[in-house]
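Please, structure for the following, as tokens.
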Amino acid sequence: YEGKTAEGLTWALKADRAAGRPTGYATHIFMFVGEHDEARRLRGTWAIKEAEERGGGPIEKTQRALRRDPDNIQRVSEAALALSNAGRLGEALPLLERALDLSPDGRPVTHRLGLLITMYLAEARRRSGDEAGAQAAAALVRDDYAAQVAAGLKYENLDFWGALIAAFDHDHDA
């Protein structure tokens, strides 16, 4: 990889290592550049640790919570993210769409998972053949990211959003 994608991957791996996380950021970056085998390899370690810490598999746990509270944006987002992290974007797509629908004014930034959910929505739309929809979802994240950079904000997840945007924009055919 070159340019922004390489910078994003390098940043993600360093940030994960510094925080003692087992490849959380890096897994997402690999997924967005089309390196699904590498993402699955890294996610395997991460998902096992997550499941052990949470006392059950993330998909099952988030699905139970969603059944109890189906109109809660946080529950919808967490269920969508669990499916996305498992590489099940086709199953996640309706939940990703619902999360965006539940966001005020269709803006993804009203809760802690918003930008990540919106990037997964962009990728799920892309994989389903809806490139225009994918670009529309990615534009929400690009706009929010640009506004935060312009405002001079600096925090770890802002760097992550930049890395995800670069990964999404990466030419998958190159």
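The two ends are 10 Å apart (CA to CA). The chain has a mean pLDDT of 78.
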